[in-house]
Write a structure and sequence with these properties.
alpha+beta; seven-stranded antiparallel β-sheet; 3 helices; globular; single chain; 45% strand; 131 residues; START-like_dom_sf; Alpha-D-Glucose-1,6-Bisphosphate, Chain A, domain 4; ASHA1/2-like_C
Length: 131
């Protein structure tokens, strides 16, 4: 199995980063439209009408403000996304792990570059820039 693994640092408090990962209105600004709720067992969707993508998710872990995980199932992808946050001083370290890719396929690289782009949008949101 192959995993997408990304690390980012944000000069923002951990609670603000957590809110950006769990508030559906904020998620819509940097990931995609959704009906997400940070409740273990909650089933939700993320969608992008422009490209016809619907991702089905179920929340697996909510340990505010340090860990969040949910399934990420759409098209041929059946994976788990896990966010791990840690604050040191005024920096919040964010680790994203998307596990369960059977190979380094188009979907794997799409996830890698897609999350990289989205995490840059998150950076803009956290710094107060419009996205």
């Amino acid at each position: 199995m192959f995993n997408v693994s990304l690390d980012f640092e944000y000069k923002s408090p951990i609670d603000k980063v957590w809110n950006a990962l769990t508030n559906p209105d904020i998620l819509a600004q940097w990931v995609m439209e959704n009906n997400f709720k940070p409740i273990v067992g909650y089933k939700c969707r993320f969608w992008n009408k422009e490209i016809g993508l619907v991702v089905h998710s179920e929340v697996l872990t909510v340990n505010k403000p340090s860990q969040l995980s949910y399934t990420w199932i759409g098209g041929p992808i059946d994976t788990v996304v896990t966010w791990t946050l840690k604050q040191e001083g005024d920096i919040t370290y964010v680790h994203l792990e998307q596990t369960g890719f059977p190979d380094q396929s188009t979907e794997y690289y799409g996830a890698y570059y897609g999350w990289s782009s989205m995490l840059e949008k998150l950076s803009s949101y956290l710094s107060g820039e419009s996205i």
